[in-house]
Amino acid sequence: MAGKATAVDVLRGLKRRFDRCRRQYAPWLPWKLDEALSVGVNPTLPLLQDMLLLPPPAPVPGDELGTIKGALYELEDLLDDLDEHAGVRRRPGGRPTWKRNNDAEFKLHHQHANPQHEKYKEMVGVNGATIIGRDTEKQYLKDLLSQSNPDDLSILPIVGLPGLGKTSLARLVFEDKEEGWDFDLRIWIHVDDNFDLEKFAVCIISEANKLMKGKFSHILNRSDCPSYLKFKDCIEEILSSSSCLIVLDGLLYANEHWLPDLKYVLGETKHKCTRFIVTTSSEEVAQVMHTVPSYKLGGLSEDDCWTLFSEKAFGSRDATIHSWQTKIGKAIVKRCMGMPILAQSLGLMVQNQDMETWLAAGNDELWELVERHSLEREVFSSFKQIYYDMSLMLKSCFLYLSVFPRGSDIDKDELIRQWIALDLINSSRHGTLPAFLHGEMFIEALVSRSFLQIVNTSSVTEKKCKNPPPTILKVHSLVYDFLRYIAADDIFTLDYAKSPNISVRNQPFRYAVLTNYSWQAKMHEDFIAKAKAAKAAIFRNCEATMPTADIFPILRYSRTQELAPKHW
Q1: CATH of the domain spanning 135-296, picked from 1.10.3210.10, 3.90.190.20, 2.60.120.10, 3.40.50.300
Q2: Which of 125, 354, 435, 511 places its Cα 20 to 30 Å from the Cα of 505?
Q3: What is the CATH number of domain 390-475?
Q4: The whole model's pTM is what?
C-alpha cells in the first residue's frame, strides 16, 4: 500500500527533524514541553515505525492509516512552529529569518516498508509464457555477440524502461538452441540490490557445478573462496575450461559501485568464450559495463500488443469474440504504448468481464485501475524495485514530478529551482556543493533510471548565447502513472473542468493542486479545510478573480503557493 510507505517515510523524516530540533532549540523550549517531547514523543516514533514495518496479522485499514498519517503531519507542523519561533527569537529585532510563503517544506519521503521486498521478474515470457514480437531483436543480439572475437570478453547491455520486456528478450537469446549458438554453460543470475562480487562468484560457481554434475565442487569447498582477493582465481578455472553464456538480469543503479571492479576482473580472467547479457533500466550501468554497443529496447508494434492482449483477454483461440470487445480492445491496446506488461495486465483485467470493465480499461487513469483491480504486482513491481533503491532525497524530488499534468514539457532549470524552493534540495545538507549542482545530479540520476526523458537540450553553441533555449524534460506516461499511484495519498488534485462536485477524501494531503477554478464556481469547503495542513499549494489555469486572498491565510502551513502560467 502506497500510503503505508508514505507514513513510514514521514516517520523517518520526523525522527531526524525531532532530534535536530531538540538539540538546536533546547534553550528556548519550555521545560515541560521539552520533557513531554523527550518522554512521550521520542520513544514513540521508533515503536510506531516498527509497527508499520512489521507484517501485521491483517492489513491496516485505510481510515486508521489516514489517522496515523494525520497525526504524523500534525507533529511535523509542530516542528515547523518550533523552527519559526526559534527563528524569531534568534533574529535581532524580532524579525523572522524567513517568510513562510517564500520558502517551502514539501516533504514526501517514500521508503520501502519492507526491506525484504519481493524481487519481481518481468511478467512476459516467464513461467513458460509465449514471447511475442521479439524475433528480430533476438537475432540482432545474437549477431552482435557472435561477431566478437571468442578470446575477447563480450558484455552486451539491454537497456529500457521497466515493463518493456528486457528480461523476456534476454530469455529468448538465452534459451535459443540454434546451430552455431552453442555453449557449454548457460547461467542465469537475477541480481538484487545487495549483490556484490562475492555473491556473483557464488552464483557462477554453484550454477556451473550443478550444470556440470559436481565438476567444480572442489572450488566450492575452498575455505578461502569466494572472497574479493580470490574472486578471479575462483571463476577463472570455470571460464577458461567452458564456453559460457551468462545473463545478469536486473542490474540496478545501486549496483554501480562494484560494477567497474567486476568488469575489470572479468577482463583480466582467462576464458574460453564468455558472452554476457546484462538487462538494466540504467543507462549509466550500461555505460559502465558494455564492451559491445548497448541495445536500447523499444516497444512492441500495435499488432503484437493486440496479440498479447487477446491471449489474456479471450483465453482460448476458440473463444467467441464480440464486435464490441474488438472495438474497445483495440482502444485499450493503443494506450499500452508498445509495453507488453500493460497489454498482458489489461488483458487479464478484462477477461470474462462486462462492457463496463472493458470501457474502464480503455478510459480510466491507469494508476487508478492498478489500485482498483490490485494490478500493482503486474504493472509496477519493476518500477518499485528501482524506486526503493533511490536515496530519500532523490525520491522526494522524483515524487514532486507528479504535480505536473501528464505529458508536460518541464523546464529543467525551473524544476531544479522549484526543488530548492520546496527544500527538497537544501545546500546545507551537501557541504560546499551548491544545491543547484545537486539538482543537476538528481536530473541525471532520474534520466539514467529511465524515470525522466530529455526531449531537447542546448547545443554547445546555443549554451554560449546570452539566452540559450531551455532543456526540456518529460515523464514517460507509464512512469507518470507510477508516480500518481505512489503519491496518491499525499498529492490531491481538484480539477473543476472534470469533476467540480468531487468530494474531498478524509485523509490529509501534503500538496494541493487546484485546476480550472473560476469565479463562478464555489470553492469546496472540505478542500479548504483539508488544505490547511498542506505544505504547498499550486493553482493552475485559474481565473485571476479567484479568492486567493481568502485562501492563502487558511493555508497556514503551506510554505509556497504558486500561481502557475495559464498554459501549464
Answers
A1: 3.40.50.300
A2: 354
A3: 1.10.10
A4: 0.70
